[in-house]
Structures are given as structure tokens and as C-alpha cells.
Design brief:
It is a single chain. The protein is mainly α and 286 residues long. It contains eleven helices and no strands. The chain has one domain. α8 packs antiparallel against α9 and α10 crosses α11. The protein is elongated. The N and C termini lie far apart (70 Å).
């Protein structure tokens, strides 16, 4: 009972404190000169450290986080059906039957039946590039894994470059906030010392707002966005690894159903269907 009374008293005290707050003073956090200083340092550092291609990647990946995960379970089901149909075509008609599809994938009647996969430029290109050396006979199946691994490594590095830039900006934002605060104190406040105390205090508050927004922007905005982009990259690589394992299994002579089963086993639990669900899905697609 005593604890409850103390909690009630604490809540009453908090309510009193909130009622006495001058919420209009919260507007003191918003100062155009601090935003200009911080924004200039952030964008200036990004321009200095990054080529144009990476800067475009920063924008596209940051905006991409608004869409959430790039793949859902239904997208993997579509992928499995597409790969199964392609593998069936290659098994029945020989690898030469796949030539028109892997050479001109955007005009393929097979790929166009699966819109999510067909419009995923990176996944479609990776799938066709994986099959092309086998279709034209340039490589043996056991020579294919290093080639695909190199492609995946390059794609991962390319996708990680904008994340690296965002991470470095997040690391630097607290220091940028301090620089903005010191700049405000030197340029504005040093000339007002000895004047009206309210004016001096307001100026110091304005300068310190830069420090606040630097820390806030680092740990609450830029840092979380960079982490989210990293998770998106992991999801994209998981999709491509599923394609890799299925293609390698098919190239080594496994039946289409088994090749898709190999790809299924690479998926995480929230995306992975059961073996019986996969079998029923693929049989219903033929």
C-alpha cells in the first residue's frame, strides 16, 4: 500500500510538473542556423567521401527502408515455381531449350509469367548468368560455384558501400553537433557577453541545440537507417543464395523438384515453406 501511495504521489507530482511546463519553450530547439550548420557538414562530408554512384545508392537505400523487407513468403513461392518451370524445360528439352530464355530474359514467355521475379533486375540477371555458362557449354557444373560466389561477393560489396557512408555519417554526427555549438558560441555569443542575460542565455541555448540534434540524428535517425539498410541487404542476399543453390543442384544433375528443395533449405524460418508445401506448390504449377 505504501508503494502504491508513493507511486500515486509520484504520478501526481509528474502531472503537476508537466502542467507547469511552458511547451512554447520547446520551440527553442528549432533554429535554422543550427540545421544549416549540421546539414552543411553532413552533406559536405558525404560529397567528399563518396562518388556520385554511392551517393545515389545512399538515397535509394534510405528511401527503400520505407517499403520494409524486399521479399515476402509469397515472393519465394513465385521464385520456386519459376525455377521449377525453367528446370523442367531444361530437363525435357535439353539445355539448348533454355537458350532463348537466358539470352533474352526480358522477352521470355516463361519469366513474364512471374512478375515479381521478372521485374527484379538483379535476381533475374543473376539467375540467367548462372545458367548461361552451362547452356552454352563453356563451363562444367563443378566450375560454376566460384563464378557465382564472385558475383555474389561483388553485389554484396556494391550494396554495402552506401551503408558504410551512412555509418560514418552517424559516427560523425555527434562531433558535427559539437562543432555547430562551438561555432554558434564563437560567432554569436562572444559578441553579446555583458549584454542582456536573457539574450545571452537564449543564444547559448541555440548553440547547444546543435549538440542535441547531432546526437539525436546519429543514434535515432541515421544509425538506425543504416542498420535497416543492412538487414535489407541480408534479405536480398538470401534471395540470391536460394537461386545459387538451386541452380548448382540442377546443373549437377538433380531433378527439378530436388533442386528447388535444395534452395528451400537455405531460407530462414519465416520464409521457408515445408517440404510437403513445396511439393504441393510445384505440382500445382505444372
Amino acid at each position: 500500500m505504501m508503494g502504491f501511495a508513493m507511486a500515486a504521489g509520484g504520478g501526481h507530482g509528474l502531472g503537476e510538473m508537466l502542467s507547469k511546463m511552458n511547451f512554447a519553450a520547446m520551440g527553442g530547439l528549432v533554429h535554422a542556423n543550427e540545421f544549416i550548420s549540421l546539414g552543411g557538414m553532413v552533406f559536405g562530408s558525404m560529397i567528399v567521401m563518396s562518388p556520385v554512384k554511392v551517393l545515389k545508392g545512399v538515397v535509394s537505400q534510405a528511401l527503400g527502408t520505407l517499403k520494409g523487407s524486399p521479399y515476402k513468403k509469397a515472393d519465394y513461392e513465385e521464385l520456386m515455381k519459376c525455377m521449377y518451370e525453367v528446370f523442367q524445360l531444361g530437363r525435357r528439352g535439353g539445355m539448348i531449350a533454355l537458350e532463348e530464355h537466358v539470352m533474352t530474359p526480358h522477352a521470355s514467355a516463361v519469366f513474364s509469367k512471374y512478375p515479381k521475379f521478372h521485374h527484379d533486375h538483379h535476381a533475374l540477371e543473376f539467375f540467367c548468368d548462372a545458367l548461361r555458362p552451362i547452356v552454352d557449354g563453356r563451363l562444367k557444373p563443378d566450375q560454376l560455384p566460384p563464378l557465382l560466389d564472385k558475383t555474389l561477393h561483388t553485389m554484396h560489396e556494391e550494396h554495402h558501400q552506401p551503408i558504410l557512408v551512412m555509418t560514418k555519417v552517424a559516427d560523425g554526427l555527434p562531433a558535427f553537433g559539437i562543432v555547430a555549438a562551438v561555432l554558434g558560441i564563437i560567432v554569436v555569443m562572444m559578441y553579446k557577453l555583458g549584454g542582456d542575460p536573457k539574450e545571452v542565455g537564449g543564444g547559448i541555448a541555440t548553440a547547444l541545440a546543435g549538440t542535441f540534434f547531432g546526437i539525436f540524428g546519429s543514434y535515432c535517425i541515421v544509425g538506425p537507417i543504416a542498420t535497416n539498410c543492412d538487414f535489407v541487404a541480408v534479405a536480398q542476399m538470401a534471395y540470391l543464395k536460394c537461386i545459387r543453390e538451386s541452380v548448382l543442384a540442377f546443373a549437377n544433375g538433380l531433378p527439378p523438384m530436388v533442386a528447388c528443395e535444395v534452395g528451400r533449405r537455405t531460407l530462414e524460418s519465416d520464409m521457408r515453406m515445408s517440404a510437403s508445401e513445396l511439393e504441393a506448390l510445384l505440382k500445382s504449377s505444372t
